[in-house]
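Case study: Sugar phosphate phosphatase.
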Amino acid sequence: MYRRIHEAIIQSPPIDYFDVFKESKEQNFYGSQESIIALCTHLQQLIRTIEDLDENQLKDEFFKLLQISLWGNKCDLSLSGGESSSQNTNVLNSLEDLKPFILLNDMEHLWSLLSNCKKTREKASATRVYIVLDNSGFELVTDLILADFLLSSELATEVHFYGKTIPWFVSDTTIHDFNWLIEQVKHSNHKWMSKCGADWEEYIKMGKWVYHNHIFWTLPHEYCAMPQVAPDLYAELQKAHLILFKGDLNYRKLTGDRKWEFSVPFHQALNGFHPAPLCTIRTLKAEIQVGLQPGQGEQLLASEPSWWTTGKYGIFQYDGPL
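Here is what the predicted structure looks like once written out:
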């Protein structure tokens, strides 16, 4: 459907770059201003003291920003039917209350991997984190906040972003959305928000942040087909030290959108897709979930029949060496 919409538009100059979802995505950003200001303020204050933090404090901040990125995934315009899905509360104040709703929590694995990379990294070498993006608007802000922290804490030296080549699934991020949002943040009249935007623009100029396009992300293939369908992309992903897959559609394509038993191991459900250590960060909005404890999914289904489609629950699910 999204490709058909795009085909119709590109045959109609001068609107060949028209995004039918542009207004909805921008409204999501504008409606989340207070929350974005709170996050940018937190990040800038954190960066100013980051060299004074001990390892446990740094780890706590890393976990905090990972959780913010997770709950940012609730702001999905395809789930809300195009209605407002802006974030109008300070998610920083809600993290403790939301912890019981994280069904799988592999954040420790992410910390262990990146902190070890940092400790063993040679001067000239790089640590690359790739983020396969989901929604624009507030969620993209949470992803950029996390990416900024990764650089500022030296847990990564480069962050690579993958978005969609065409407008896709209502609020999915394109290069236009990515650049537009950074411009909006930079031109904010709030000093910490505008400082974030200026820093992000500088990261792009310096090559520390790199945005990539690839048509594969808008093709119907499950990701285990990538080595055959898009070997160039698979080879690029193999350069990552860690790949973060955001959101529901990425999870569905990682697991082939099959009707797996809840307790099937994540590694098995990936069906041979193992380019690099990876983690899916997702609030559940589709009827697919693997890697749960025996009986856990059935118990949730009995008490909350819609538990896996409302975005109430979230996961950090890792696959890679431990």
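For the exam, be able to explain this: The longest helix spans residues 55-72.
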